Amino acid sequence: MAALRAPQTGIMVGGEQMNGSIEIRAERPGDAGSIGTVNRFVFGQEDEARLVEAIRAWPGFDPALSLVAVAAGRIVGHILFSPISIVDGSISTPALALAPMAVLPEWQRKGVGSKLVRIGLDVCRSRGHGIVIVVGHPEFYPRFGFVPAGAAGLILPFDAPADAFLVAELIPESLSEVRGEVVYSKPFQPDAT
Fold first, then answer.
1. Which helix (H) or strand (E) holds 77?
2. Which of 165, 190, 170, 188 has its CA nearest to residue 94?
3. How confident is the model at residue 191 (pLDDT cuts 50, 70, 90)?
């Protein structure tokens, strides 16, 4: 496993080569265009690319939590974690949203998405984040420790299949006393600019 450092922090954030052909690393300033292209192609629309741009422009953005998969100098995958809250009355608990994650079709089912998630969760944990929420494939995310979020006492603020609303506890006991509604940051909200 080759390691890398986030240039903005100097903290070891993890990195990995897959068979010498894929590197997982933190986003760099020149990566924005390629990340947008990957998200537009994979999702077949602009929404996810716009979401990434909005999060990147938001003051809560941490570039160390935006990871790319690179093959032969080309970005072939991307995953983003960004701050959200879980609110129960006057109690607000910080958490992260995993969204979006995209891997170009020719690199799917080759472990690229799994490596992005695993390394991304390791980076989140190393930076002190204890809770990650995802609305995603219920057959994919549980292998990384995600469990049904509704059963954990969390409420999603929009309609989605219950089995797709998942949570992972990265630091033991981070979720033990947490209940409430997930509140996404401004970039996730439809009126965000």
1. strand 74-88
2. 170
3. low
